[in-house]
Automatic annotation (TrEMBL):
Entry protein name: Homoserine O-acetyltransferase
EC number, UniProt record: 2.3.1.31
Organism of this sequence: Heyndrickxia vini
Gene symbol of the encoding locus: metA
Compartment(s): Cytoplasm
SUPFAM superfamilies documented for this protein: Class I glutamine amidotransferase-like
Annotated residues for binding of substrate: K163, S192, R249
Source lineage: Bacteria, Bacillati, Bacillota, Bacilli, Bacillales
UniProt site (Important for substrate specificity): S192
Length: 302
């Protein structure tokens, strides 16, 4: 089944070339079914790339999904055109009286700041508080996951010194939880961050369950006891070349650039990296949409 997106969204052409089933408003409105309404708060600087990465995973589902993109009113995005935001995005003021079946909060390049120092932190706290009653399940990614752990559960992040970047092996800690149903006992996932969360702090919180971790990269997947909040500290949505482009960008800046671990063939940045986590990325998003959104959300919100 398709995802419903605006007809002129640039990601549409990318997805159609990959045979991802997308549908515009006119065709979707002619179907007599109850689609899922998913709100995506996109905090990433390269918004069009993130749109395509997330829509690619959300589109691999038997469910029809309506997508709405959200950006922060209290922050000026510098890497996306104003016209793109005006055409395809809205702000929290315009959706706070609505209810959504699911929500995604992405990562953001603000890890070096304390949460309270981020210019849109107050707005983000308002959105996360609103999500408790207006969203069936929220999926948080990378810095978004750290923000959720801090706001909802009081678990702070810490500076790890050298950037954690690369593709790391992870182990499943609790295979009975539906989010990781069908996962291999060990699987690969990309990370790209300068901060982390301590496993001991997560275990000490009675309202959070740690589902997967890496000996090198630390905790990856967590879920709240009430199953409304899901946190992913890595980037399973990344495409094969995303880490390479980040490394090239950091290298060109002239500062210290960390080559992603276990990523380039033979550790040679001139060789093309392979996509080794795609299957588990699709499985994670499918499990989230099925078990935590579709199976839990009311057919009609009161």
């Amino acid at each position: 089944m398709p995802i419903k997106i605006p007809k002129l969204l640039p990601a549409r052409e990318i997805l159609e070339k990959e045979n991802i089933f997308v549908m515009d408003d006119e065709r979707a409105n002619s179907q007599d079914i109850r689609p899922l309404n998913i709100l995506i708060l996109n905090l990433m600087p390269e918004k069009e790339r993130t749109e395509a990465e997330l829509l690619r995973l959300l589109g691999n589902s038997p469910l029809q999904i309506n997508i709405m993109f959200l950006h922060m009113a209290t922050h000026e995005s510098k890497n996306v055109s104003k016209s793109h935001l005006e055409q395809f995005y809205t702000t929290f003021t315009n959706v706070k009286d609505r209810r959504f079946d699911g929500m995604i909060i992405t990562g953001a390049p603000v890890e070096h700041f304390a949460f309270e120092e981020v210019d849109y932190w107050q707005e983000l706290m308002e959105i996360m508080e609103w999500s408790k009653t207006n969203v069936t399940s929220t999926l948080h990614i990378c810095w978004g996951a750290q923000a959720a752990l801090y706001y909802h559960f009081g678990i702070d992040k810490f500076e790890i010194g050298q950037k954690c970047t690369g593709v790391f092996k992870h182990s499943i800690l609790n295979s009975n939880v539906k989010l990781v149903r069908g996962f291999d006992e060990e699987f690969l996932a990309p990370h790209s961050r300068y901060t982390g969360n301590l496993k001991d702090h997560i275990h000490a919180c009675e309202n959070v369950i740690l589902l997967a971790e890496s000996d090198e990269a630390g905790p990856l997947l967590m879920i709240s006891k009430d199953e409304k909040q899901i946190m992913i500290t890595g980037h399973l949505e990344y495409e094969a070349g995303t880490l390479a482009e980040e490394y090239d960008r950091d290298t060109k800046k002239g500062g210290e650039a960390y080559m992603p671990k276990h990523y380039f063939p033979n550790d040679d940045p001139n060789e093309k990296p392979k996509h080794k986590w795609r299957a588990h990325a699709h499985l994670l998003f499918s499990n989230w949409l099925n078990y935590y959104v579709y199976q839990q959300t009311p057919y009609q919100w009161e």
